[in-house]
Each structure stands twice: as C-alpha cells, then as structure tokens.
Amino acid sequence: MFRLSNLISSVVENKPERVLDGSIAIWNFTNRCNLSCLHCYSKSTLDEVDTLTTEQIKKTILEMKENGVKFIIFSGGEPLTRKDLFEIADFCRENKIITYLSSNGLYFTKSNVQRIVDTFNYVGISIDGDEETHDYFRGLKGAYKETLKAVQLANATGAKVGIRFTVTKDTLPSLKFIFELAEKENISKIYISHLVYSGRGLDNLKMDLTKEQRREAVEFILSKAFEYYESGRDIEIVTGNMEQDAILFLNKFALKYPHLRDAMRKRLVAWGGNSAGRKLLNINSEGDVRPDPFFPLTVGNIREKNFGEIWQSGELLNQLRVHPRKQLSGICASCDQIDICNGGSRSRAYAITGDLWSEDPSCYLSEEERKGN
Description:
- There is one protein chain.
- The chain is α/β, with parallel strands linked by helices.
- Strands 7-6-5-4-3-2-1-8-9-10 form a ten-stranded mixed sheet.
C-alpha cells in the first residue's frame, strides 16, 4: 500500500512517518460471498464451505505473531459470512495484532454495526462507482444503495471508515464520483486499487486500463492528495497494487517542494515498493500461503506446516526479499527508480509472460521518468 497522504504530511511537516514494524497478512477467511464481482480473484459464491476451523486459525495466528506478523486484513469472499469472525478478531486483539475488515457492507445492520467497528481497528467498504456502475460491477441490482447505507451506518459511529475502489475501464468514469462521495459523506479514507490479473481479474483482462488511462487516473488521484493536504481536508488517500505511483508522486512532490525532494526520495526508498513475500503475505480460505493475494504460486499450507516453517524458508521467498529486485528483466533491468517501486507486481508479470522476473506490464512511466530525470 502506498500511503501518499501520510507521506506528504510527514515529510513537509518533518514528522515521523506512520509505519508498521512488522508484516501484513491479507487473510481470505472464507471463499463464501453474496456477490459475484467482475474483478474478484477468489471466484467466490454462497455455496462455498469453510475449510479452516476456528482452532486452526487461532493456532496459525499465534505462529504468525511469533514470526513478526502484526497486522491482519480480514478478507474473503465476504468475511462476515463466517460465524466465528468476531471470535477470531477478538483473539487477534488479545494478541496485539491490528485488524482491518474488508467488506462489501451488505451484512451491516443497525444492530451489528457497533460491534463491527468496536472489533476492528479500521473498516473498509467497497464501492465501485455510481449506482449503475456499482450494481453492474457487483452483479446485484440494489447493491449500491445497501452498501452506501453500510458506509453511513459505520461512519455515524465515529469509527475510522474508508471506501475501497478498484479502478478498471468500467469504473474509471466513476473515479471523480468516489472522491465527491467521500467529501459529501465525510469519509476519512479512500483506497484505490489497481487491477491485478488473477481469478476473475485474469478472466477479464480486457477490463484493465491502458497505460494512458492509468496515468490519467493516477494524475487525478495525486492532484486530490495534494489538494486535500493544502486545504486541510482530512481525507487520507492510499493506492495499492501499482508501486510505480510513488515515482510519479515524487516528481509531483518535487515541483511543489523542491527543497524536500531528497528527503521524500529517501522515505520512498525506505518504504521499498512492492513487498510481496517480504512484508506482505496472503492466506487463502484453503490455508495456502502466497506472497500476495494474486500470486500464481504457493509457498506452503498452514494445515500441513507451521506458519514459521513456511515463512522463514524457501528459495522463492528469498528471491522476493532481495531489495531492490535487480534480477528483473525488461524495462526494470535498466530502471534507476527500481529502489523505489521494487519492480511492481510479480503477479501481473507472470500472468502476461509466464515469467515471475519480467517487467510489470502495467508500468506507465516514461523512459525519462525511469531514469529519474
């Protein structure tokens, strides 16, 4: 995740950046879901049966804690379809592990919303655009109205609530709408995810942006981040799955604050770009461990091995943990900014070329920008 709002304020105001000293796990606790989203990498349905037991999950949480995992994003499917979800989240809190909930919001009600926001440190609810776009993308008429109600319910509690938005050719026209919605509803965070080709996302590769469209979208997102900071608007902007955003961001930042360019670049190198297999991991509903949720290869299964055995060994993880990833080919091999983005997504590279170590095919940077000029 690229926390550009936090970077702007921390560097301009010479404050420590908000960082998590540990690894982040995105855990798909279930493959069961009440929607059928076009971009879903899980291919979830309501007919799925949960594989992992509560006790297996708790055992693994303790093993993850021993191995430096300090943050778990509860995902799915729709995580709220698991009856033991609050028990699992409470167990995380007892073990000082920060929890985020990633939900479609359709199970939020007046009677359970307080429990949800009290349980999780942060709640992210997915909205994919205006009503027509969201309903089409989520495969359910009326989904937008119910999801917006969930956002409003959660936000009314005073808890930290955010909108999650995946940008594709279908949703790109709604990008401006998402920011207007956050402003209107006083939502404190917008998370913009770029598409990674996996699951239904791979099946729908045609829905991805062109490089020109992606650049236009990122330019808009960056402009909003600077606008919010300069106007004192308290809306945090984060992008995901496109670490090259940081390089375009650096160039925009340097135009506004040229005397702080070097300080910002130092922060970005420390951030480190793509962290799959390094500070990021995924566990799916079957217990498979992957370097990220979209990764084409698994490194082990928690039903068969202790998490520590999986996470602390293996040639693939050792290769992914090289920073910067100098072993990459294509435009990445000659890029002077690779210490910032770390080569971007290995999952996208593999999906297009069959080679984990080829360039990220979605990189939209010009040759001049890759050279740092």
